[in-house]
Amino acid sequence: MNNKAIIFSAGLGTRFKPWTDHHPKALAMVNGKSLLQRNIEYLQQYGITNVVVNVHHFPQQIIDAIQNSKGWGSNVIISDESDYVLETGGGLMKAQPLLDGNVPFFSLNVDILTNLDLDKLMAYHQQHQPLITFGITNRKSSRMLLFDENNRLCGWKNMQTGELKGPVLQYAEEKKNTLKEMAYSCVVIYEPQIFSLIRQLGKFSIMDAYLDLAADYVILGYDHSGDKLVDVGKPESVAIAEQLFV
Fold this sequence. Notes:
globular
């Protein structure tokens, strides 16, 4: 693949205290390798070696780690959000000059570890030609995404409150009941025209952009249930990750 990727690494890591009181979550260690190194090496397995990393929380620690390791063998470019954290959507838009091109590109969240096959994800994306394709699994989550029988994104649901967002709000009740609930894996392929279509500005979650675009553009979920996937969002999840990712 001649694709680029962005690894979202700018978050404050509030769920990962006390480590994140003095370090960025991206540099939390799993079996002797940081989350950032593991995701850069994951991309390398699929020939993706041009990687943008956005930084905000203790940015210099991340920059130093990348420089000291020579990018772990990849060409790593920093998207600097030191002044103002922009969340995933704003971070993506800020990185546009670094990602712009005429081929699809990937995004990962630094605190997600998975063995989802990116070649299969890209093959699915090329076969169906949506605007966006992302990994989904049937694991439990407090917030689930809703899909129709063709795996097209139809909405978002807060499982605790029942709140709905996205096109699903316009659906008749019987149609709502046919939608399947799946969890977001944070591994995404975007077509390059995404930058001209996103309407949000400043600080926003990429999920808001998905739900805004889902009515007019095809956004697909790629079901990879059964693959390894750990959200290393809390310190106690490191032990789980260390069992699955040697």
